[in-house]
Amino acid sequence: MTTPSEQHPPPQQEQDYPGQTGEMAPEPRDEMSDYTGRGLLDGRRALVTGGDSGIGRAVAVAFAKEGADVAITYLSEQEDEDAAHTAELVRSAGRRCVTIRGDLAEEENCNRAVDRTVTELGGLDILVNNVATQQPVADLAELSTEQWDRTFRVNVYSYFWTTRAALKHLTEGGTIINTSSINGLRGNKSLIDYSATKGAILALTYSLAQALQDRGIRVNSVAPGPVWTPLVPATFDAEKVATFGQQVPMGRAAQPDEIAPSYVFFASGRLSSYYSGEVLAPVGGETMPG
To answer: Which of 102, 107, 182, 264, by CA, is between 20 and 30 Å from 133?
Structure first.
């Protein structure tokens, strides 16, 4: 079991967007170093968007340790080092890894990511829609149309585009896992557009689960609470970072290694064959009755 970092909360820090793992203090636990696979995904091929760091990295490595070949997408040259390290971790687990750079706010890049995955891995069995962007605002009046549009294109449109492209390749037994958020379940006054997208992802998950049931494709969602990833120091100010995660009952943010097993659960038919249209919410003890 992963031991959470003793630095709760983390020290004040900020980064340029989209953030880099190596500049975080402390660095996240996102390599699944103490995780032992059981062959739950032997022979499967997975695409993880936003797989260079954070939750995406931990998911990619966990899938590899369970026997899957993995393709990951990431945004820009700034993340080349993170993406290369994720690929190294996957290959160290004895599996193939494809790294795909591109802005998934553009439809053609979503189609290209799926096509490259299928070409280089020989098919596609598992799609993890995980890419996300956020930018806090102090007041609704500060939320521009440009930011609103960008957040929806990355966080929702990319899920639609990538899923639609993947449907040409997913067969019975295929799995789609969408990353939502605690903010999609209960909102956030400073992350208005982000929360709206994460709520949309939940509704998209429920709808796709119904729409794809006859094809034998399961669709589920993971909705984490606060997680220590590069997006945090890249989008929050230093003072906010220094209190990040303190609001939940456990009093700390999760490490990505603590979230990735939820994705393994949904990806594995052995574990979750009767689950579709479901949400796992690792939120640090917060309860939301009703």
So the answer is: 264
